[in-house]
Amino acid sequence: MDEPRLTKVACPSCGSPLLFEAGVISMRCQFCQAVVERPLQPGRPATLKDNPPARPQARHVPSSSPPSALSTGFRGVLLFLSILLAAGLALLAVILVVQNAPSAVLNLGVTGPAAAISADRVEGPDFVVFGYDSPGESYLLARIDPVAKKVVWRGKHFDDISAIRTIVADGDKFFTIEGRDLHAYSAADGKELWLARLSDEVGYCEECLSAADGRVIALTQDYVIQAFDAESGVPAWKRRMGGYTGGFQIADGSLWVIDDVDDRSVLLQLGLSDGGELSRIEPECVREDGYASSTLNASSLFLLDPQGSVRAENRSLYIWYGWSPGCIERWDANSASQTWQIEDESGFSPSGDYTVLAAPETLFFTERNTLWATSAADGRTRLVLEDEDYELVPLALEQGVLVLRTKRTRGTTQFGLRGVDPDSGATLWEHEIEDAEPLEPPEPAFSHVDEDDPIFSVRWIDGRIRLSLFQANPTRISFVTIDPKNGRTFDEGVLALNFSYADSYFGPVAVAWKPPVLWFIADSKILGVDISAAKLLYSMP
Is residue 373 helix, strand or coil? Predict the structure, then answer.
């Protein structure tokens, strides 16, 4: 039998992989400097060169000068010191290897949640993650750098996978909810900075833990908004809500929330610094005949445009509320003055099923299977389309085409994309997404992919739709680009994912989006995928 060109064995001293070329019977491990002898090739008769046993053995050979006429005792001392030096170098090498090891030996699984930090770096952000530490057999906080493939630091340890509810990063700090406690940590080294006690566990809204303008704000399940100084953790202010609230929005140093005041629901603008009331909006929707009127309730929908993450001198506030009658209103958020009001006897039902797309001149919004369009200038509202077989979500107005996400409600559920004429509501094209659920809200899928339950994501790159389909058995992402003008598909591709199990995995959970790279958690890893090129850029660990 011919000898193989390469034989791979593990160093018995440090475990590092070694490759023996044909004819080589021993070599020095580059990590711990142990001399490792090649094992016998199965099925080949031994020769004088093959005297070493089949299991590789290591002998540490110090790097010293050849023996001389020195006394045996002195040579022994030199040998002992050399061995100590070699052992020290080997230990240092092992430490360096572990610290800078490739992903396979980092012994850290990302279970989530996670938050991006240093997001302004061109190559991509670092992440603070909650994960499982295999050597310590516990969960922990860690900062990882997927670009350099290293763990920057390992921090606080926990016994329970549910110990941390959420993570929010802001500047040089990040904040976690641990039970009923709000914790602040340094993003640089993971050291805990302060701890504050909450009145209850945090709520389940997307913004129930937020950080902005030197404040950390939590909305707890007992309907209390609590704000803390981000530097010290000292309580800044607290507001006990009159009852259930659907959440709050932050913009330009203030917080907007619907609350019950004097037995009436009002929209409040509170200062982030002290929680003081900056303005109060009490809309009333009155029928033309004056017979009945409607007011806000905790489920009414309000929208700030542009969105709160963008600083704006001129900001509009839109409100949908009321049942027979129902009203849509536009307000100037800075002056708290009404710009226009549109009343409809059938009502614009305030519910969580509402989705709104704020295009430059028009607001498109849906209530289940009905799509409306409202002029931003004067509030004129018209019915665009009604489809009793589909729920509709407006995604974008691109190249004069309104792109909707559809969900078939008659028969088996099926999601898809549809391009419609925004004026007539006529269907221009449709793209079915068979047997998959969406990654993005509303109604996001449970984050687990198996052979029968793929998950899709819709992102926009250069004015075109990039559809990503996360699949299992085999684990992969399938991509297709869709021209929103005519629905034509092109740039199809497949990215194979080397996950632990081929038939299922947890994820994806999107944690950052920096076009064209989508960062997400899947299979206990943070991955950065260039979705435009169908290319895996980073995987950690």
Answer: strand
In tens, the pLDDT along 389-429 reads: 999 999 999 999 999 999 999 999 999 999 999 999 999 99
pLDDT tens for residues 331-372? 999 999 999 999 887 666 655 557 899 998 999 998 778 999
Which one, of 216, 271, 224, 266, lies nearest residue 244 by Cα?
224
Q: Phi and psi (nearest 5°) for 336?
A: 55, 40
Cβ distance 356 to 362 under 8 Å? no
Query: Which residues have a Cβ under 8 Å from the Cβ of 274 and sit 6 or more positions away?
Result: 236, 237
**Could you count the other beta carbons within 10 Å of the beta carbon of residue 358?**
20
Residue 399 is classified by DSSP as T
Domains, the chain, in order of start with CATH, read 6-99 (no CATH), 101-197 (2.40.10.480), 435-541 (2.40.10.480)
| Distance between CA atoms of residues 469 and 459, nearest Å | 11
pLDDT in tens, 166-216: 999 999 999 999 999 999 999 999 999 999 999 999 988 888 999 999 999
Query: What are the CA-CA distances from residue 80 to residues 14, 73, 238, 285, 297 (Å)?
Result: 21, 10, 68, 91, 82
Distance, CA of 172 to chain centre: 19
Is the pTM higher than 0.85? The answer reads no
Contacts of residue 120, defined as CB under 8 A and 6 or more positions apart, other chains included, come to none
Separation of alpha carbons 137 and 346, rounded Å:
59
Q: According to the 3-state scheme, what is the secondary structure of 434-448?
A: CCCEECCCCCCCCCE
Which DSSP helix (H) or strand (E) runs through 84?
helix 72-99
Q: What percent of the chain has pLDDT over 70?
A: 79
Q: What value does the CA radius of gyration of the chain take, rounded to a whole number of Å? A: 31
Q: How far apart are CA 324 and CA 329, in angstroms?
A: 15
- Nearest Cα residue to 370 out of 348, 386, 391: 386
DSSP 127-196: EEEEEEETTTTEEEEEEEETTTTEEEEEEEEES-TTS--EEEEETTEEEEEETTEEEEEETTT--EEEEE
pLDDT digit string, tens, across residues 453-510 = 999 999 999 999 999 999 999 999 999 999 999 999 999 999 999 898 889 999 999 9
The residue type of 237 is W
DSSP string, 459-516: EEETTEEEEEEEETTTTEEEEEEE-TTT--EEEEEEEE---S-SSEEE--EEEEEETT
What would the DSSP string read from start to end of 218-241?
EEBTTSEEEEEETTT--EEEEEE-
Spatial neighbors of 434 by CB under 8 A, at least 6 apart, are 414
Q: How far is CA 29 from the centre of its chain?
A: 40
Neighbours of 260 (CB within 10 A): 17
Kindly tell me the burial class for residue 414, based on how many C-beta atoms sit within 10 Å of its own C-beta (0-12, 13-18, 19 or more): middle
Distances (CA, A) of 456 to 64, 108, 132, 391: 62, 27, 27, 17
Distance CA 261, CA 38 (A): 81
